[in-house]
Amino acid sequence: MLKKETKSSVTIFMALSFTMIAALLLTITESCRTVGERFYWQVAADASMESLFSQYHRGLWENYRLLGLQYRTDGDLIEEFYDFSEPYRSAHNLFPGNLKEDNIDLNSHLHITEDTCFQEEILEYMKYGMIDSMIRFAGSDKNESYLSEEMQNIFKRTTETSEIRELQKKYALDSNDLKAVEDAIFNVDASAKNANACHHDAWSDLKNESPDGFYGSKDNFMGSLDKIDSSVSDYTAAADSLAEKVSELRSDFESRKSSLSEEGIAAIEAEISEYESYVSGTGAVRSEIEAMPEKTSRLRVDADRVETDVQEFEEWLQEAMEECDDDEDEDYDFEAEITAFYSSASGDWNSFPLVAYNGEVSEINSHNKQLLDNISTFLEGELLSLVLPEGQAIPSKTKVNDSNPHFMTDSTANPVEIALMGEYAMKYFNYYHQGTQNKESLPPSGNTGLELEYLLEGKESDYDNLSEFVTKLVTLREGLNLIYLYTDTAKRNEARAFVTAFLCVTANPALISVFTFFVLGIWALAQSIKDVKTLLSNGRVPVFHDSETWSMDIGDLLDFGSSRSIEADNTAKKGLSYRDYLRTFLLGQGIIDQTLVNKRMLSRIERNLRTIGKDPESTFSIDECLYALEIDIEPDTRHVMYGTGILNLAAGNVPEKDYSFQVSTYYKYKNDTH
Q1: Alpha-carbon gap, residue 378 to 170, rounded angstroms
Q2: pTM for the complete prediction?
Q3: Same domain assignment for residues 188 and 158
Q4: Structure confidence at residue 172 as a pLDDT band (50, 70, 90)
């Protein structure tokens, strides 16, 4: 019996050991199954998310290579996500979980119009969207890094040229201030000569012993003295105005020096010194002219004294003659007394120190000056019609753009990335082309409007955008041309010769220098207008001209000011094209505010997808397109290896909920998802 009890104990021991080992194995198995189940639902969530994002907007991709998931509400996203998870929910395996739609939560999402998503998507595509890393610029291939640096150097000139143009405007003083001073000097000289003529008339009357004639001539003389005083007053006002403006030039120049290049500083320094010389050179003239009113005052006193003497003599003569009538000696004629008096009076009158201007009087050709002034007003007028090639249609004035896009996009792009953003814009947005565009020159969207010009200027119509950009181009070219003219001695000599031949006759070298700089400014503007017309005619224009590429003859300035007609120069084989200048301004504008450029791109994309293509979507909204999404799911499940779970699973029954866990999935079109 003891032996039988011993054998039973071994059986019981083995049974208990087997149970414990089985429990351990099942626990380990359940633990592995639980881990696998979590992985299973993670795969289910990731796959459902990828299936959801595979529904990207086809038109957005085909036309702009942008990936965006269009939706209307969060409920739509949850419903579609739930539908895509159905294969995982209905599968029969060791993972008897279930997912309810109510257990799907959107944790966060980003639209393509928010944060830097739009920029990221473009830069992600541009890594692969460019066939190679070389970009055609100024007739040669360059990589984006070198191109970015070169374009930045060019765009920096826009700031400098803007400053130089402002300085040029002030230094030229519209030349009206200079002309006002010279005209005032001319009037002073003319008034002085007129006074001398009136003085001579009065002297002749005294010489001819004609008191009545003298009284009239004396009144004319007094009036001429008033005219001298008035002319001097006008001169003082004009000289004060000029002196005040010239005194401001130096300080203004000093405040702008930081934005100018060395050649720009040297050019303006040369010009301002001429103005300072002109102001200081007029010091002796001003002293002479402003001393005239004191002289006219003395002349009035002397003239009144002589007039009083004549009146008193005539009264005496009248009384004497009346007394003679009463006397017996009626033959006395007083001829000797009259001759003696008027000889003395005329000598006295002739001894007056008359007013005279002893300096040089300049003469400005007002007609030619007006023609040159006409050129300076072209920037404020219909400049676009002036620079468009012959036969080129004027862009539409219809409002087709949003001047203030509402999108919340942002940008953190560096200059190289901004250059890539510009290349993207050059590829997928249309811009001005001469003549009628063929299909190959259009972007994938097929838009024929001036989209790049809108990205730069932000106006509502194509006409306004091209007008603004053309004005910027002319301004840029004007400043660059000014720098060239200021530093080219031969061109400055041409301008000086033009001044002396067609604009101003003067012995004042400072005035010639001042007008020379005025003509240089007009010449630079005329060449810049010709440059832009060349660009719009598919020509090329170098950043800086030289003697070979400069094509505006100074002798044509007067004709240009009269006819408003100028021809493009299609002989240039080197330099930047219109496309190159667009690319440069896109980089410059991006450095200033790439966020604003991005907003305008989004606005154009949205409008094009609404109106252009085979199947335009009138209700399309790009701010409804998702770029990134995070979803949390909480599937219900239970343990399988405990209790009768394995039997229920084998029978095809879904066990009752035992526990749940949370899984998160995140997707972003940019290839950095986790």
Answers
A1: 18
A2: 0.76
A3: no
A4: low
